[in-house]
Design a protein that fits this description.
- This protein is of the alpha/beta class.
- It has two domains: about 1-75 and about 370-410, Urease, subunit C, domain 1; about 75-365, Alpha-Beta Barrel (TIM Barrel), CATH 3.20.20.140.
- It has helices at about 50-60, 90-95, 100-105, 110-120, 125-140, 155-170, 195-210, 230-240, 260-265, 280-285, 295-300, 310-315, 335-345, 350-355, 360-365, 390; strands spanning about 1-15, 35-40, 45-50, 60-65, 70-75, 75-80, 145-150, 175-185, 215-220, 245-250, 270, 290-295, 320, 380, 400-405, 405-410.
- The strands form two sheets. Strands 1, 2, 3, 4, 5, 14, 15 and 16 form an eight-stranded mixed sheet that branches. The protein has an eight-stranded parallel sheet with strand order 6-7-8-9-10-11-12-13.
- Helix 6 links the parallel strand 7 and strand 8 (about 175-185).
- Helix 5 packs across helix 6.
- It is globular, with a radius of gyration of 21 Å.
- Bound molecules: N-(iminomethyl)-L-glutamic acid (NIG) and fe (iii) ion.
- The site of fe (iii) ion has 5 residues, from loops.
- Fe (iii) ion binds near residues 80, 82, 249 and 326.
């Protein structure tokens, strides 16, 4: 049979094949590993996979790639990023080293509102230039699809500018972006209280965004001193009425009941979850809510506590991993996140791989993250002999080649 491309002699090929999405519990260990594997691609789609000797017998390809000694996996999916921001906040790192907490930095005029100022000042072209630079790094480190949140504009004009920039960058860049409206990231100074701001988001911003299809999801930073569970609930109900999927930044610094609230509303994902209780985990598992864990954030905040990933996996709650890319946690690398997930949250390297691909895709409702037959050929050739090297050989880029829809993009 004819094919466009054969990737042969993969020391390990992890297809993550299987229909069940997302994967839970023991399923997270089943990555469909084939030793001396081969992948067959036609018209940008995976049409077959198996042992190299069998695939070479069955297919004639125009192009043959020899992946001897290397590991092939689906492209990473990064399901939680704050990609649309201008500037950086490297000086806050010193404050953190000196012992200041996230909330102390925020209250001292740092944090989100500082980035809001810079993002409001930036033109859309300037913002897109900064986003492109980050997207190039993401792609070269193996991310082929990512979620991108707004949330550093807060006012309607800048939120729309950020979501338009995300939409345009999705079209202009080989990496795919999935947009999320996070207007409720912080109360903007021009509103007197959070209630008034949430009214504005519900009445003015969300209808405009829904009307123009500028976002697939609505998210809210549900946290003590930011937006409480009642504010958040009101916003998410309105978003759902307008046809947006719902997500929530929950249980990050204090547990104020947000993950359970969002689970009851049918959220696709609850994100951060450092402080989630056993009952929260039980509720999320029962409702099939995907927990997006972001170990880069406690790492950059120099905190000892990480999300209870082991407990979640043992309770069969679906778990995904993401970078949280933002000016506080500035990394584009899902490889770094895999290392942190294994070392700090005791995830097995195979669980981390599942959480970075198929489960991450489910958390943004995209049919990617596996190399099953009929799926888009988004894959990575890693210069490592087996997948254990992914978390183990850390702090360097292990990606050799990146393919998106069967085309080499990096
Ligand atoms: O997900 N937690 C809220 N938002 C971001 C941080 C944003 C910032 O510090 O700029 C987060 O970690
Ligand atoms: Fe975040």
């Amino acid at each position: 049979m004819k094919a466009d491309m054969l990737v042969i002699n993969c020391n390990e090929l992890h297809t993550l094949n299987g229909n069940k999405v997302p994967r839970v519990g023991q399923e997270m260990m089943e990555t469909g590993c084939i030793e001396d594997g081969a992948l067959v691609v036609k018209d940008g789609i995976v049409i077959d996979f198996g042992k190299t000797e069998d695939m070479e017998k069955d297919y004639n390809a125009l192009k043959v790639i020899d992946a001897s000694g290397k590991t092939v996996i689906p492209g990473f999916v990064d399901p939680h990023t704050h990609l649309a921001f201008s500037g950086s906040r490297e000086d806050e790192l010193v404050m953190k080293i000196q012992g200041k907490t996230y909330m102390e930095i925020l209250n001292a005029g740092g944090g989100i509102l500082r980035t809001v100022k810079l993002t409001r000042e930036a033109s859309k072209e300037q913002l897109k230039k900064e986003m492109k630079k980050r997207m190039d790094v993401m792609l070269s480190h193996g991310t082929t699809t990512a979620e991108a949140k707004s949330g550093y504009g807060l006012d309607i004009k800048t939120e729309v500018k950020c979501l338009e920039a995300i939409k345009e960058m999705d079209e202009e860049h080989p990496m795919d972006l999935v947009p999320t409206y996070l207007g409720a990231h912080s109360k903007p100074p021009e509103f007197k209280d959070t209630g008034e701001y949430i009214d504005h988001c519900c009445d003015e911003v969300l209808p405009r965004i829904a009307d123009r299809s500028l976002a697939d999801f609505c998210d809210v930073f549900c946290e003590e001193g930011v937006f409480d569970a009642e504010d958040s609930r009101r916003l998410l109900i309105r978003a759902a009425e307008l046809g947006l999927g719902i997500k929530v930044h929950a249980d990050e610094i204090k547990n104020i009941g947000c993950s359970t609230m969002a689970a009851e509303l049918g959220a696709v994902s609850c994100e951060h979850l450092v402080k989630s209780s056993d009952v929260d985990i039980e509720v999320m598992a029962k409702k099939g809510v995907i927990g997006i864990l972001l170990p880069g954030t406690p790492f950059m905040l120099m905190e000892d506590e990480y999300s209870p990933a082991r407990k979640m996996i043992d309770e069969e709650m679906p778990v995904a991993l993401a970078t949280d890319l933002n000016p506080n946690c500035y990394t584009e690398s899902m490889q770094m996140i895999n290392t942190l997930a294994c070392l700090q949250m005791k995830m097995h390297p195979l669980e981390a791989l599942t959480a970075s691909t198929v489960n991450a895709a489910a958390a943004i409702r995209r049919d990617v993250g596996t190399l099953d037959k009929g799926k888009k050929a988004d894959f990575l050739i890693l210069d490592i002999p087996n997948i254990m090297h992914l978390p183990y050989h850390f702090g360097v880029n292990l990606v050799d080649e990146v393919y998106k829809g069967g085309e080499r993009v990096c």
